């Protein structure tokens, strides 16, 4: 692709990306009241989207990757905070990749 | 909650607490910024185009998809469509947190939503869940270091990409899934958390295997949101009890 085409793809892609970032709010703010089901659906957004980002990566991963995510989940259930989850999962990943390879 | 509300801190202290909370995000994103810069140069993007892409699109996954497609023999609008497909989930983000931003001016909203990336959304939601207000100062304190880091890393990655050490051995390539998992777990006290996570996981994996990336993100997300909406009445009853 030519340099101008690349430039315009970036610009148009950026404009559309911005529209996705503001669009949900623009649509929803037109309504005076939010239906309880819409409300409940929106409350499910963080878990739903973040899970969709993780799950395929976990499926594609080997034993080290799955063990790292499992460690993070267990640490979280034991009451660990974000940073603890982050570093314990990372430590398991690095250790297992080192020993399994 | 009580003492904090009475004291009414200044915007600068909100901004600084946002900056503090941005540190783990900046760390998690760092290898990807460098990697994006390095890969973009490898795919023939100029230094200007690489930095421009990070500064204007500011969406890691869609930028990776974009540079993969720049060398493919396809029409430019297909590249744009693919970028939009990866970023479609943001519609849900702004609809979700927009509900809490009535105290922002329209200009603050127009500006703030530009920075609404995955971790920005997740941190804002967590703040709401803990019963704290999303002030514009806090939001920008969280957003700006991550944004500046991302643009700077793309630039460094483009310049010095060949010097990046073995990302696999240090676990850098898998740091983002671990980060996202910790965010998923932080919402576990919400009603319907487990069924939503289960349905989204299954739907996104099936979509990933059949239709393929990047559609699995939107499909998995919509499946979980639909379930949340469908089971709404049951969840409200449980909460009331």
UniProtKB/TrEMBL annotation, chain A:
Q: Which Pfam families match?
A: AzlD
- The organism sits in which domain of life? Bacteria
Transmembrane domains' residue ranges: 6-28, 40-59, 71-96
Swiss-Prot/TrEMBL keywords? Membrane, Transmembrane, Transmembrane helix
Question: Which InterPro entries has this protein been placed in?
Answer: Brnchd-chn_aa_trnsp_AzlD
**Entry protein name:** Branched-chain amino acid transport
Automatic annotation (TrEMBL), chain B:
Its GO CC terms are: plasma membrane
| Topology class, membrane | Multi-pass membrane protein
- Entry-linked InterPro entries: Brnchd-chn_aa_trnsp_permease (IPR011606)
- Transmembrane ranges, per UniProt, are 22-40, 47-67, 73-92, 136-161, 167-185, 192-211, 217-236
Positions in coiled-coil regions: none
- Where in the cell is the protein located? Cell membrane
Q: Please classify the protein's predominant subcellular localization into one broad category.
A: membrane
Gene Ontology BP annotations: L-valine transmembrane transport
Question: PANTHER family attached here?
Answer: INNER MEMBRANE PROTEIN YGAZ
Family assignment from sequence similarity: Belongs to the AzlC family.
Name assigned to this protein: AzlC-like protein
Organism, as annotated = Chelativorans sp. (strain BNC1)
Instruction: Please spell out the taxonomic lineage of the organism that makes this protein.
Output: Bacteria, Pseudomonadati, Pseudomonadota, Alphaproteobacteria, Hyphomicrobiales
